[in-house]
Design a protein that fits this description.
heterodimer; A: five-stranded mixed barrel; 33% strand; B: Tick-borne Encephalitis virus Glycoprotein, domain 1; six-stranded antiparallel β-sheet; 33 strands; 46% helix; 23% strand; iron (chain A); metal-binding (chain A); cytochrome c-type biogenesis (chain A)
Chain lengths: 132, 956
């Protein structure tokens, strides 16, 4: 049985190392300030600022979408998303971005949006069901 | 207030509710009976009695489950929208072939699908499991009890708490929501369905869920055998049937997972077949665990080693299946996954489901730990079982890593529950993270699945065998190095790990084929194993080729400074104008045209591949499409189109449309925001105007001078987009537009038309992209030109040819009939019969109202002399008397023909799309390899069923 114990021990050690690595690959959601100080790639949560300029003009550059985002600490910064404007962007309740700060702008290479469910209440649902 | 509702179909509701209760209590009774039958297995008669009861109640349970499914299908097929499940998943436009997709779109439907397979598997087990039937069926029934309870929809009070057990799929809409509409007795007639999510209207969605759920459901069988083995203490006897079932389960579950990734690749815009999405991960993890279990099961059968591990892997597989159900259905994944179900209020029940089987598994293991036989002699390091065991542990490692990373949302929920201020943790780049670890696991498994084939079971005398082992392994390493070298001439492997991955793939292929050729004669049972392991090798190479070497063809054309390489890669869409070819990498792509059919809009892209000298090597067309939501207010989904070659795929998907093409609302807003100016022009007249366009970035502006000339005008409308229909009234004009100012001058001729059809006006404007100019005929033209019949005061006259009448101040002469005249105001179609009455005034102006017979229906076309205000219809012709009945009216004459043209500058083009094109080299290696893995598992199963000891031999 000795060999099995050695194997089990090895497994525990490798698992511990790998888990430690996983721990390093995770982080808390950052805000603009943290992203600026670290300079690394981070994930960041915020909400779309509707009354600031939002630019997407595929005729100029289909991979450039710029808007303003308010992070959880209340700071507002310009975000440049390196892809087209996602569907239902204006409807999003909260936005998760992956990217980094470059000077005053946040360069995002990935976006996830949380959209409100289709119907705000039962009445809206029934209304949509009765319209043909 | 009680309302007597009209037109409700309550049959399926009553039958379905009753059947659900039957299903629940029959499963419960069957569970108790099989449990008692197992417990009393020493007393043959008593045990057999309990077993009979168990069998009968399980048969009843199955019948009840089928009835529930039948009731839901009945309501769906008949579109009984009073049922909540029907309104949620069906609508009038749903094609019959998607009715299955609609059924399992919802949580309840997919639970029923899962139960359906459990029932089928239960029936098979009742026939084939022999002495294992009692304990195994007891476990299957217990799972059924838990799942049915999720559909019961029973509410009961327990002290102060109201406990809700399950969500019933056969509830009426009025029972689930409270809305004023249910005050109306005839509310049923007002309801419409919501319809099936467009992304699921796909044939993959018809075959992927049932296969995946059969895979899910079948994991209960190895689990049940493991529990039965522990329960009855027959630790060795269950290994053979357990192995057969786990081979089946792993094969089917694997195929189900592959169908999911094929669906993602073929029908969604993910741009790949695997994204490490939590839902994908939680279906992969049980499969890996099951495969680990299959390997230890083989070891246990051959040597008696590793029975404990086999128990744990099979128990773990099912617990992971339940865990995956919990993750995807409880809403805990939240925003980390694109395709988790919405919450259904079953969190507590799901947690119980998970906790119960987790604790049961651990409890049984602890209880029986010392009872499980372990051979005294341990395996030698040079034996096959040793390395297979290491392989299983490596798979288990992979399971732990993927599960750990996927469970971050669960970890966060727990931390938040303890400390509400806790900020959730997240993987910054999940794909890169998973790839980093799994690549090494892939390398390890590849090497071991190859090398272990050369080792022997229970090796005691490796010294003797060593030369042969070293020789074969040495040749295999040499051959694989060569093949790896050749492969790397084709694809790139930027790091040593990637190179090793390719090597490991070839090593697995080489060694397994070698093994097959030299050993298959002795033992046919190894065929399945070889097919699977060769498949694994091909899969590794396929992953390296297609994912590691995917090439974004649609590379961004615009410069942006300061980006990293990864970020530059994210910019993977290009913009294509219609009919303007665009060179991307070695392709020239032209957006040719698009068609709309229902909500489906298909775009046709011509691809030309060029060689280095710029010659066209080949041409093909791809047709990606977008589906609009109802009402054309947004894009519901985009579907890619892929050109398949034996050695690569060219994948194309539409990433975006101009806002005006995405939504009719935006299109109308844009149209309304244009600043039209109306220019009234006679034929040959030219007008000019000036538009100043600011350039915000440079704080300056460009001044454009536009010139618009009306070159022609016709009352028989022609326009490239216009097809004439009978009854149309309209007009068209030719316009010559020019623009000077800015960088260059432009000059274009365009057609515009305006049609009145069945009381509605249709514009056929001209959009001149070179000068961002939009021209249409202003609607005020009708006030001038097209006087409506209802506004006119007609008098009827019956006249012979040659006779004259006086209308107002004009004398009109009916000259003669003209058969089949070619006139400006009427466009004849084939098989039309038409005659006109030629009327002329004293000063020689003429008009020809037309009498028309089209498809046996008589009708007419009016003619007019606008400057005199005369309008005439030819109502009928009397062939006997040769008289014409005419209706003629006079109104205020309208003055000279001037056509009001509405012209808007700064109308920007909408004839473009944004597109992503990716080349996946060697993707077929991935599909071939993965399919081969699953087929190998199923071959092994078939071989093992055929070599099974016949029943008679067991009984005697």
């Amino acid at each position: 049985m000795k060999k099995s114990y050695v194997l089990a021990l090895m497994l525990v050690v490798i698992a511990a190392i790998l888990f430690w690595q996983t721990g390093n690959a995770t982080s808390e959601y950052a805000n603009f300030e943290k992203a600026a100080t670290s300079g690394d790639k981070v994930q960041l949560v915020g909400t779309y600022v509707k009354d600031k300029p939002t630019i997407y003009d595929p005729l100029t550059d289909p991979n450039y979408f710029s808007f303003f985002l308010e992070d959880l600490s209340g700071a507002e910064r310009e975000v440049v998303l390196l892809m087209g404007k996602p569907q239902d962007f204006e409807m999003s309740e909260s936005i998760v971005l992956t990217g980094r700060m470059q000077d005053e702008r946040f360069i995002a290479s990935d976006i996830q949006m949380k959209c409100p469910s289709k119907y705000k209440d039962d009445e809206a649902m029934i209304k949509s069901l009765t319209e043909s | 207030m009680d309302v007597q509702y009209l037109n409700e179909h309550l049959g399926p509701r009553y039958i379905g509710h009753f059947a659900l209760l039957v299903a629940f209590f029959a499963a419960l009774l069957s569970l108790v009976s099989y449990f008692m039958a197992t417990q009393t297995r020493g007393e043959v008669l008593r045990s057999r009695g309990w077993q009979r009861l168990g069998q009968l109640s399980f048969l009843a349970h199955g019948a009840a489950v089928f009835t529930v499914i039948g009731c839901i299908f009945f309501a769906m097929l008949n579109q009984y929208y009073e049922y909540e499940y029907v309104t949620a998943h069906v609508d009038g436009q749903l094609q019959q072939r998607y009715i299955f997709s609609a059924f399992w779109e919802g949580q309840e439907g997919s639970f029923l699908l899962w139960m359906f397979w459990h029932v089928i598997l239960g029936y098979v087990l009742m026939v084939t499991a022999r002495s294992w039937e009692k304990p195994v069926m007891a476990v299957v029934c217990s799972v059924q009890v838990v799942i049915v309870s999720m559909l019961l929809g029973v509410h009961f009070g327990l002290g102060d708490m109201l406990i809700k057990l399950g969500s019933n799929p056969l509830l009426l809409l009025r029972e689930t929501v409270n809305a004023p509409i249910f005050q109306q007795a005839d509310y049923v007639d007002l309801l419409r369905g919501n319809g099936l999510n467009p992304s699921l209207q796909n044939y993959w969605m018809t075959i992927h869920p049932p296969t995946l759920f059969l895979g899910f459901a079948s994991t209960v069988v190895p689990f049940a055998y493991a529990v039965a083995g522990l329960w009855t203490g027959r630790h060795k006897e269950w290994l053979a049937p357990g192995l057969r079932w786990s081979l089946f389960s792993a094969g089917i579950l694997g195929i189900g997972i592959l169908m999911g990734s094929a669906w993602a690749y073929e029908a969604l815009n993910f741009g790949g077949y695997w994204a490490w999405d939590p839902v994908e991960n939680t279906s992969l993890v049980p499969w890996l665990m099951l495969v680990a279990g299959i390997h230890t099961n083989l070891i246990s059968k051959a040597t008696g080693q590793g029975i404990r591990a086999t128990y744990m892997f099979y128990l773990g597989t099912f617990v992971l299946i339940v865990y995956s159900t919990f993750l995807t259905r409880s809403g805990v994944l939240g925003d980390t996954s694109v395709h988790a179900f919405t919450e259904m209020g079953l969190e507590a029940q799901l947690l119980f489901f998970l906790g119960f089987y987790f604790l049961l598994s651990i409890g049984l293991m602890i209880w029986r730990w010392n009872h499980i036989p372990v051979p005294e002699r341990e395996e030698a390091t040079s034996s096959r079982e040793f390395w297979m065991f290491i392989g299983s542990l490596t798979l288990f490692m992979s399971v732990i890593l993927i599960t750990g990373a996927t469970s971050l949302p669960v970890y966060n929920s727990i931390r938040e529950w303890i400390n509400p201020a806790f900020d959730g943790l997240t993987l910054i780049e999940p794909e890169a993270h998973h790839n980093k670890f799994q690549i090494w696991i892939g390398i390890f498994i590849g090497l071991m699945s190859g090398g272990a084939q050369y080792l022997r079971w229970r090796e005691r005398n490796f010294g003797k065998y060593f030369r042969s082992f070293a020789l074969r392994t040495g040749i295999a390493v040499g051959g694989s190095v060569l093949l790896t070298f050749l492969t790397l001439l084709w694809i790139q492997a930027p790091s040593i790990a990637y190179k090793l991955l390719v090597f490991s793939g070839w090593f697995a292929i080489w060694t397994n084929l070698d093994y097959l050729i030299f050993f298959a004669r002795k033992d046919a049972r190894i065929t399945g194993s070889v097919v699977s392991h060769v498949g694994f090798g091909f899969m590794l190479i396929g992953i390296m080729a297609s994912a590691g070497n995917k090439r974004v063809v649609s590379q961004n054309q615009f410069l942006m400074e300061g980006l990293t390489e990864d970020e530059e890669l994210a910019r993977s869409t290009v913009r294509l104008y219609q009919d303007i070819p665009l060179g991307m990498e070695d392709y020239v792509v032209t957006f040719k045209s698009d068609t709309i059919e229902g909500l489906n809009r298909r775009y046709f892209m011509d691809y030309q591949r060029m060689d280095k000298a710029g010659n066209v090597v080949e041409e093909f067309q791809l047709a990606p499409n977008v589906l609009y939501d109802k009402g054309f207010e947004k894009i519901a989904i985009t579907n890619p189109s892929t050109k398949h070659y034996w050695n690569k795929d060219v994948f194309t998907v539409i990433m975006g449309l101009p806002p005006e093409e995405q939504s009719v609302k935006i299109r109308q807003e844009t149209e309304d925001s244009l600043k039209y100016r109306v220019l009234a022009l006679d034929i040959g007249e030219r007008a000019t105007f000036v538009d100043t366009v600011p350039i915000p970035q440079r704080n300056s502006s460009v001044i454009y001078t536009y010139g618009i000339e009306l070159t022609d005008f016709s009352r028989r409308p022609t326009h490239p987009d216009y097809t004439a229909e009978p009854g149309d009234i309209g007009l068209s004009a030719r316009v010559h537009a020019d623009r000077s100012g800015g960088i260059g001058s432009h000059d274009t001729v365009a057609s515009v038309a305006l049609i009145l059809r069945e009381g509605l006006l249709y514009h056929y404007p001209a959009q001149i992209n070179d000068m961002s100019l939009r021209i249409k005929i202003d609607e005020s033209v009708f006030e001038q030109l097209l006087v409506r019949d209802t506004d006119l005061d007609y008098q009827e006259y019956t006249l012979e040819p040659g006779s004259s009448i006086t209308v107002g101040d004009q004398v009109l002469t009916f000259e003669r009939f003209v058969s089949q005249p070619q006139v400006d105001h009427f466009q004849p179609q084939e098989e039309d019969i038409w005659v006109s009455a030629l009327l002329s005034t004293a000063d020689g102006q003429q008009m020809q109202p037309v009498f028309l017979i089209r498809g046996k229906q008589p009708s007419g076309v009016r003619d007019e002399i606008t400057n005199l205000g005369l309008y005439a219809h030819l109502v009928s012709i009397d062939p006997n008397t040769n008289e014409a009945t005419l209706r003629i009216a006079q109104a205020n004459p309208t003055t000279a023909l001037s056509i009001p043209l509405a012209v808007a500058p700064r109308s920007y083009r909408t004839d473009y799309i944004t597109l992503q094109a990716i080349e996946f080299p060697g993707i077929n290696l991935f599909w071939f390899g993965t399919i081969s893995m699953m087929v190998g598992l199923l071959i092994s199963m078939v071989v093992r069923i055929r070599t099974r000891v016949p029943r008679r031999a067991v009984q005697s």
